[in-house]
Design goal:
Number of strands: 13
Helix content: 25-40%
Radius of gyration: 21 Å
Distance between the termini: 10 Å
Number of helices: 13
Largest sheet: 9 strands, mixed
CATH topology: Alkaline Phosphatase, subunit A
Length: about 425
């Protein structure tokens, strides 16, 4: 679980495990400076929670996923048809949980997990069954507004504006899409940076970024200095292997891994760095594809996600910003546990579902897990017990906005009144480890 003592000490909460927002005192935090950063990664298309954490210790998982299932961390392999896959790639990675293991796609995140800096919230959803339309457009639009069905401002914009005294001179940045997302609509000082996928040299990258700040000599100088010192950017273009890993497949504008490296560099810009970063990553709407589980576009998106998050974390460690940063990963909804079609055939993906898996990766000591905790927040019970009667979808039993409120309030030391402006009608999450 999270570091309870640190959380209570820093929020002033009364005794008891992770009290709801209404019970947290409204201390006068308004004049306290904050260097903390928040990065929100949106997996656009509906991400499959079983491709993040896989219930590999349950027979039903293999019944519904068949040859697309990850294998248990040890013991005999259930499927011997691996067809040239690297030895060991099929095995999930043990996290010490009795039901879930980390999907092999997500292996680059093991160092963050081992450091107590990565938590998983299973069965999270933005809107409940019967209200969630499972329409990409409608659910994404509602998410951008923080659960509101009407209104013109995004919830990250409300964060930036409500907590303006905690923000830097360039408070919010987006990457991964050509247009500024609705989540930043109304933000004072938001900017969009989406480099082309095929950057030909580090000089091109420098020119693109520095040109954005021509009217701000201080920030321009900071960027130029940062790039001159950033050997990772240079090696990205000089080393073919690193370049291929970074660029990979292009699902949107540019590479997610490259965007993560850029974000880490910008977040190290001191007083002029962005305080809030929104990253849009596409490619998760996996209805039909070749070799769903292991090699096709579905596998690439999750591997790219894990590589990008790992690169972001390492970059922030290198520039000293990691202890101030919290990264959250969400999707508009999850996917059905059952694949579309017989489990012994390829070319079948999954349909839109409900419960998904949120991830929170943070270097903030406030959120570091205590020793002995596995960091998996999940509803007890089998796969079948976690499916919605009549639909077969996974139950969404955690309000994703409550999780967002919980972390934002602690990350920026915000009052209840401030949080009510950012996410109205939402109470803070109360973590219970599964």
């Amino acid at each position: 679980m999270l570091n309870r003592r640190s959380f209570l000490k820093n929020t002033g909460a009364c005794t008891g495990a992770f009290m709801a927002s209404s019970l947290l005192p409204d201390f006068a935090y308004a004049n306290l400076p904050s260097e903390n950063k928040f990065v929100l990664v949106f997996l656009n298309g509906g991400a499959d929670q079983y491709s993040i954490l896989a219930p590999v210790f349950e027979n039903e998982y293999y019944n519904i996923r068949g040859q697309y299932a990850a294998e248990a961390p040890d013991g005999p392999l259930r499927y011997q048809w691996v067809q040239g896959r690297p030895v060991g790639e099929e095995r999930a990675l043990s996290l010490g949980h009795n039901q879930y293991a980390l999907h092999p796609f997500m292996a680059p995140l093991l160092p963050a997990y081992a450091a107590g800096q990565l938590n998983f919230i299973m069965g999270a959803e933005l809107r409940p069954f019967g209200v969630n339309t499972r329409s990409h457009f409608e659910e994404t639009d509602t998410m951008m507004r923080g659960g509101l069905t009407q209104g013109s401002t995004g919830f990250l914009a409300r964060l930036v504006n409500t907590a303006a005294d905690r923000m830097t001179a360039n408070p919010a940045m987006q990457t991964g899409d050509t247009n500024l997302s609705a989540i930043l609509n109304g933000a004072n000082g938001a900017f969009n940076f989406s480099p082309p996928a095929q950057l030909t040299s580090p000089e091109v990258l420098r020119e693109l970024m520095v040109s954005m700040y021509g009217s701000n000599p201080a920030y321009r100088g900071k960027l130029e200095t940062s790039f001159n010192q950033n050997t990772q950017i240079d090696s990205l273009f000089s080393d073919p292997t690193l370049r291929q890993q970074a660029l990979g497949r292009d699902y949107s504008i540019g590479s997610f891994v490259l965007n993560c490296r850029i974000a880490a560099t910008l977040l190290g810009g001191g007083a002029l760095a962005p305080s809030v970063v929104f990253m849009n990553m596409f490619g998760y709407d996996s209805h039909v594809m070749s070799d769903f589980g292991w090699r096709g576009s579905h596998a690439d998106t999750f591997r790219t996600l894990a590589n990008g998050l790992a690169a972001l974390r390492q970059g922030l460690i290198d520039n000293g910003e990691w202890s101030k940063t919290t990264v959250m990963v969400i999707s508009e909804f999850g996917r059905s546990p059952q694949i579309n079609g017989p489990t012994n055939q390829s070319n079948f993906g999954t349909d839109h579902g409900h419960g998904s898996c949120m991830m929170v990766m943070s270097g903030n000591p406030l959120f570091t897990r205590s020793a002995g905790s596995n960091g998996i927040y999940a509803r007890a019970g089998s796969i079948q017990q976690n499916r919605i009667n009549g639909s077969g979808d996974l139950i969404g039993h955690v309000n994703a906005y409550s999780v967002i409120r919980f972390y934002l309030q602690a990350q920026y030391n915000l009052t209840n009144a401030q949080m009510d402006q950012i996410l109205p009608g939402v109470t803070a999450w109360q973590p219970v480890v599964g």
